[in-house]
User: What shape does this take?
Amino acid sequence: MTRVIVSSPYVAPGNSLKRLMIQVIVALLPGTIAYAWFFGPGVIVNVALAIIFALAFEAAILRLRAKPVLPHLTDFSAVVAAWLFALCLPMHAPWWLVAVGMGFAMVAGKHLYGGLGFNPFNPAMVGYVVLLISFPREMTTWYLPAAVSGQTLSLAESVAYSFGSVDIGQWDALSSATPLDQVKTGIGQNIPIDEIRQAPLFGHYGGTGWEWIALWWFVGGVYLLITKTIRWHIPLSLLTAVMSMALLFYLIDPAIYASPLFHLLSGAVVIGAFFIATDPVSAATTDLGRIYYGLMIGSLIYVIRVWGGYPDGIAFAVLLANMCVPLIDYYTQPRVYGEK
Amino acid sequence: MLLAIVTISLMAGLFGLILGYASIRFKVEGNPVVDQIDALLPQTQCGQCTYAGCRPYAEAIANGEAPINQCPPGGQATIVALADLLDTEVLKLNAEHGEHLDVPLVAVIDEQTCIGCTLCIQACPVDAILGAAKHMHTVIADECTGCKLCLPPCPVDCIDMVPERLTIDDWKWSNPLDQLELAQDG
Amino acid sequence: MAKLFHFHGGLHLDGHKTESLTQELRQASLPAQLILPLRQHIGEYNKPLVDVGNRVLKGDVIATNSSLICAAVHAPTSGIVSAIGNYPVPHPSGQPDRCIVIDVDGKDEAAETDIIDPQDLEPDELIQRICRAGIVGLGGAAFPTSPKLARGKMHRVDTLIINGVECEPYITCDDMLMRHYAAEVIRGSGYLQQILRPQTTLIAIEDNKPEAIATLRQALANHPLADTEIIAIPTIYPSGGEKQLIQILTGKEVPHGKLAFDIGLLCQNVGTCGAITRALEQDQPLISRIVTCTGDNIQQPGNWEVRFGTPIGHLIEQAGGYKNADDPYLVMGGPMMGFALSGDSLPIVKASNCIMVMHEETIPHAPGYHDECIRCSKCTEVCPAQLLPQQLYWHARAKAYDRTQEFNLFDCIECGCCSAVCPSQIPLVQYYRAAKSEIRGAHKAQFKSDRARARFEFREKRLLLKQQADEERRRLKREALKKKQLQRGVSDDAMPDPVQAALERVKERKKAVEEETR
Assistant: This one.
């Protein structure tokens, strides 16, 4: 018998993609539950829909590319991307919005480049940005937290909403801008920050509800760090960049620049730092490069939020930084053993 | 007007001098393109390309007289390298000139039959055959390029081409991707 | 105690050392036949000095060569040479190589020895005796010891490092050796000091071998050596790699493209020290070594002192045989850096530190589907050579060999850490090994074609010179002829054309013959 010659090491593999992805999903659970707690079960409908569409699109395109379908589907990378994508959507979104976004994420963002491992851009963010640009109205219709409005949509209502079988009009009173949006609009009308933040939409540090969800993302992020699923470089440098830029401008003029804590606990900074920017495929790979990468995303987030055209900037910041990854990696190669 | 003419002429003269100096100072010895092409050719010196050795073929390619696909010993790898160097299209090896062999050949003289005529010694392009008139000849296997030029002159047909003997040092680890493809094909 | 340093990366692995340490060290019995590869070291092939039918005694040199980097092969016992030919040898390729086969006569008769007290010998004489004994590095690489010592002596070694680290899982042969032959190891280190005259000697052992450390400390107390220290180093793979051990002990890095003695260091394995002691004190060449036979698929794991040439199957029999004879998977060396063997008829050689017997089903034996690289850089975190394994992988996979060299492919020590941590389970080391073989093959081909070009050009030049010389000679001859004719006063026109003249002579003769016949 001729045996195929395989090289050492002959040890049982200690890790797998599936394990990594499941760890990310576990880390996403507390934040997702908190999200549903504050804003109702709509987000769960979104996550479920996104996962279904992601798997369907991925299975179809794997078939077209004549690749093994089951091993790729069960590495759960599509599930993680779908989950993150769904968390970026407004809590109630029509089903077709999720489908279009996931379609773009999986087909254009991932498989047109060669599938997992070959995509230069974060697929979830590709899908999100396409929607943000194409469907601005749907993508900016957010809802008030239960603590403010006193009510949320039930699971059945959320599903019905998603599939368009109920009239949106009846919940119009619940719809609102996000806290970040509110701040941006307010500053545009020369209202001082302190006054803007009097609205019930705002909590102690960030937005009502949002600040607690951010805390749970943070808990999930720490879990990822402890399990060594991600390393500290990107989250730390990203948060440092956001906080220090916010602090700098807050010190210059607190009337028109929100506090660092507000920036930290509003929008997608924490989830971005721990879950989105750390997507290994599209991030920088060297330790030093990851620090630059995190700093770049962090500062871009602040720049887009404060001076850009969108209330939050994580998706654009991540995509812009993705573009710079080859350059960053090239110039941050570590010293090889024995070289001066 | 006059000033302009004088200025332009002076400048032309000056640049001429600079260029002239540069052409002497930075003169390139030999023909670098030919050297580069020659470096990519396998140096078998077999003449299968219809030229009298690798360098003449390199010169012909450099002058645009010969296509890059006439070298069977180099095979497709050489064609790709040449196409890359010359920035031309990758061609398929022209079968008229012969086939590419994965394991190179080495000439072996059957020393029982050899009559010591020295004809093969004269034919060998790399002086890889040792011997003298009316004495048995032998091939220095390490120097033989497998060009087969010694075969036709031999009056007693005592030269054979055998595949080069590989030792375990020549063994190569295979690329896992190739192994996977083999497994899928088989 | 000296301050210790860290190297980049590394892995904490399950040791699996206790399995083979429960039994005492045993002598393996002699098999009926020994198969001795002509080359068991890094370097040129040895040439056999014996013929089929010769009787050899234990310790006789049976193969050697005259190159500088050489380790002779000796007969491990007495017997008759029964064959010289190609037999499968332990090599990743599984291909056969030149071997001498000895039919063992069981008398174990030793050749005459020439014992001199090594204390009286000069360093060069010591090196010569080590060379004669065919000693190679017994840590696994099998580089001949005497040229290494000779170069070390030329370079002035400040620090001599004795490597008893044994960081790879499953292997315990050095641990066993230190427990049983501690005095030999210490005396061997003393002889190395005698040769190299280092300022300090550091004996490094991983701290998971307390018994070996204690025994060696006791032996050092009984036989004190100058400026010698036994250092327990933390257990982390691959701390036993030469470059990594140097970094741990001294904080220095061997500069790129240089060797340890360029920075005043020299490493020797503890097993090599033991072999040196035997060679110098008893004039006993290297004919056996301690081999660990262990793994999940062996009945009684343990350590044996085995004569070279013993078929691996013979050793496995002494270890009680396989647990499941249907799917043995044999590996020579450890699980991280060893290589798979094609069967159990292969002989134990100088480099065989461990025979690992595994179950085939637990080994990734088929080139299967592996996930794509997700650039997570876990490989970068563990790489002791501080390389970027995932970049190397991309280029090796794309067969962009120039690019792999830009990313320092040849600094890879193939320790296997990257493959072991890869979440996509990519056989990274195999990609690197394949790329290295291709590059080496290309270098060899390039070398050959450069030689062929030089020889071709030389021949062209020689032919041209010969042609010019011939023309010159002919011209001179013609001129000389002309001169002669001028001297005779005959002009060119008056000279009859020689061809015409010859033709006329033939005509005349023909005429004459015709007339005669008429």
About this structure: The mean pLDDT of chain C is 91. Chain C touches chain B through 39 residues (CB under 8 Å). Chain C has 15 helices and 17 strands.
